[in-house]
Structures are given as C-alpha cells and as structure tokens.
Amino acid sequence: MLILLASSCALYFFSLFKRPLLYAGLIIQTAYIVSRGLELGRLPLVGPHDTLVFLSASVAAFSIPFGFALKGHSRFHYGIAVTSSVFTAFALVSKQHNSLLPPVLRTLWFEAHVVLAFLSYALFGVAAVLGYLYLREKDSSFEGMQYKSIFIGYCLFSLSMIFGGIWAYLAWGSYWLWTPKELWTSILWIFYSLYLHARLRQWWMGRPLVILGIAGFGVVLFTYLGVSLLMKSSHSF
Amino acid sequence: MKALLKHLVEFFLSLRTAIWSLSILTIMLLAGAYIMPARQEFQSIHSAPLFIWLQEQPLSITWWLWLSIGILAVLTANTLVCSIESIIKKRKVTQWLLLISPQIIHIGFLFILLAHLLSATGSAQGMAVAREGSSFEIPGNTTFVIKAIDIQIDPKGYMTDWAVAVEYMMNNGKVLKDTIKPNSPSLQAGLNINVKDLQAFPEKAILLQFSKDPGAYWALVGGICFMIGVIILAVLKIKIER
Questions:
Q1: What average pLDDT does range A64-70 have in this prediction?
Q2: CB pairs under 8 A between A and B
Q3: Domain boundaries, chain A
Q4: pLDDT of A71-80, one tens digit each?
Q5: CA neighbours within 13 Å on the CB side: how many for A182?
Q6: What pLDDT, in 10s, does the model give residues A213-232?
C-alpha cells in the first residue's frame, strides 16, 4: 500500500512541471487514506504517519478553490506542490500506528477534534503560501485570499478546540489540562485571534499582516510536530 | 475624575488595546511554554485549584501566569465594552446577523473565561484505588460503591473495552445505579467520577478519579455560543462573497 503513498509524493513533485499531476496525486493519496481506514477499521488519524498524509492531502484539496480564484497562478501551484510533496515525503519515513486504538480514543468527539484540527492546519498552510506570494509579487489579491484561508481555518480550529474540551471532560474529568500541547494550542488560537483583530486596523494592512499570517504557520508546525515529538503530553506521538 | 473616566473608557474601547493585549498574552504564554516543561513544580498543578496552587509556588516560575491573568482581565473589559458599543452604534444596520455574530463569539469567549475563573477557584481532584465492593463517602451523605468491574481483553492481550457498574446509596435509602465506560463518566453530586486506569490481573482493580470542576458547564455554554457565532459569521461571509 505504501506504493500508493510514494506515487502520490512523486506526482505532487512532478506537478511542478505538469500541473494536472497534482490532482492525480490527490486522488491517489485519498485512495491511500481510504484503504488504510478500511484496513485499520477506524479513521486513520493517529500518529505522525497518518496525520502527515491527511495534512498533505488537505493542503492539496484546499488549494483547488484558491487555484481557480487565482486563475491557475503558477507560483501558487509550485508552493502547494512543494508543501504537499514535503509532508508526504515525511509521512513516508514516519512510523505507522497500526495497533488497536485504546477505548478512550474510540469516540466521535476525538475524531471530530482531530479532523477539524488538521483541516485548519492545512488552511493555515495555504495561507502561508499565499502570504509568501504577496511578499514576492505585491498583489493585494493574495492578501485578501490569505485572510479568507485564515478566517475559515480559525473557525474550524475553534470548533476543534471546543470538541477537544468536551472530549477531555468526558475522558479525563476536566475540559482543560495544563500540558505543553494545550498551552501551544492556546498560543496558536490567540495568535490567529490577533491576526483577525489586527486586520481591522489600517496600520497592519499589507506586509505586517501577511508576515503575521506566515509566522502563524510556524506556530502551527511547532504545535503539531515540535510539541508532539519533543514534549511529554496526552498528544505525544 | 471625569477626564480619567473618559480616558479609561477610551482605553477599553480601543481596538489597539485588544491587539496589544493579545500580543502580550501570546508572549506570556510562549514564556510559559518554555518554563513549564523545564520545572518540576508544574507536575502538581492539577493537585489544587489554580489560584491556591499559584500562591504556593515561587514567583520566579509563575510570573507569566500572573501576568496572563492580568492581561485576560484587561481583555475581558475590552471585549465587554467594545461589544456593547458595537451593538449600540450599529443597531440600525440591515444585516443584523452580521453585526451580532461577532458579539456572540465574544460572549462565548467571556463564558469560557468565566469557566476558567470558576475552575481556578473551586476545582478539586482526588484519586483512589478500588476493587469490586469498595465504597467511598462522597458529598451529600452519599456512599459510592463499586459493584462490578468488567474488562475485555483480546487474545493478543490488548484491552478492547471495559465497564464499571457503580451504585450511589443515598442517606434516605434511595439507590441510584450507573455505569462508567470509556468517555462516559458518572456525573453525580457535582462530581465527575472517572476511571483513570484498570488492572485485570492478578485481581481486578481500578484507579478512580473524582473531579469537581465548577467551570465545566460554563465552558460548555461558552463553547456553544462561540460555535454558533463562528458558524453564522462564516456562512454570512461566504454568502456575501458569492
């Protein structure tokens, strides 16, 4: 089955030269996710391997409407192709979590919490690519699209946090636990709240706001990979 | 006095106050994210309500939490004043839902802060090892009894499921039955009674966790408000875009 994943990684990379290959890569990666779900008998979203696969597929999928709105802008496409292929390459070398899930993870609250979190991470990633393009080309439409991507990502991320809180109360008796992951998740949420409020002030418009949107994805990556790999918490890989 | 009051209202009405508060709060939490994993003292943070725990710890490791609480107080006042002003100023606009949805989000945020405040002053947690037949006295002159522990293990040795049958014996002789399962605690007398860990051999035993979290229901109310506000705002923005 890993051949499917390796193919999608290659297709994402070669879409740098032939754009439709990105869609082919997405279809194959979706097939990989579905087949893994069927094999495991659950949502394949536990551990670095499966979450990286889901993240890269989400980035590619969310890039489609933005790509249409940008009328197939080539640099945007390159940014997405590189992001998706890098995440897929990391997934290929990451450990698979194939064992049975502990009973506490077998709940819709957990599934909704994780799916929404990774969809929002993907939108923050697309926003970072759009921000980079604004800095390169000084076209204000990139800034507007970065805002849209972050706004929808923020909505999904907020829902993910709420579902996570409900799940934590049912599973561990408290909606809030003082662990590094919870703290970093709060930092991420406050950081994007700052972005959304800053956009209402003229002074922040343009470069400062776009840089904030790009920096946000750095916080996303540390919250997702850094904290899970380096620190001990209920979210450790 | 009047001038001071005017300055104060202007300060809390300013979007700049919100942006500065969110920036400083981010920096404080980043400092906390660096300090927290490095200090042993934070291992005991759940052992007492946050405000009591904070008073017992050296300021050198908790300064970021104190400052964060201060900033959150400023943000609370800022959110309240701005939301009230926004509703008064724009009450005659045609797209009323577009005006009210960010305020619903703000109300949700304030309820979540209230929940944290209540939890920080009155939460409590206790653990106990129990076996079938063990009993505990809980608030309301009630005896909590473990009736049966059922643990299902597959041939490879993985725990696939579990359930703990419990009973509450009230002082008026009434008996309430309940079952604790994964993600399904027993909620009684303001307590959340959960199973933290289980052991099947050599004899069935469980690690019980008794939690009191007075902020939990307010957090749920806040979460629901936030969710409603966010969904309305997102749908309206997408509609306008089309």
A1: 93
A2: 118
A3: 1-101, 103-237
A4: 878 999 999 9
A5: 13
A6: 999 999 999 999 888 777 76
Three-state SS annotation for B59-112? HHHHHHHHHHHHHHHHHHHHHHHHHHHHHHHCCCCCCHHHHHHHHHHHHHHHHH
The nearest CA of chain B is from the CA of A2 a distance in Å of 26
Do B46 and A178 contact (CB within 8 A), yes or no?
A: yes
Q: Which residue numbers of A have CB closer than 8 Å to B's CBs? A: 99-100, 102-104, 106-107, 109, 148, 151-152, 155, 158-159, 162, 165-167, 169-178, 180, 183-184, 186-187, 190-191, 193-194, 197-198, 200-201, 204, 231-232
> Which among B33, B42, B226 is the nearest to A184, CB-wise?
B33
Q: Could you give the CA distance from residue A59 to residue A221 in angstroms, rounded to a whole number?
A: 14
Integer Rg of chain A from CA: 18
Tell me the per-residue pLDDT of A50-63, one tens digit each, with 9 for 90 and over: 999 999 999 999 99
At A162-176, the pLDDT tens digits run: 999 999 999 999 999
Q: In the predicted model, is pLDDT for residue A195 greater than 70?
A: yes
Query: B163, B200 in Cβ contact below 8 A?
Result: no
pLDDT of residue B155: 87
Tokens of A93: 């070398």
- As a whole number, mean pLDDT of residues A172-182 equals 91
Which residue on chain A is closest to B227 by alpha carbon?
Answer: A159
* pLDDT for A232: 62
Enumerate residue ranges in chain B where pLDDT < 50: none
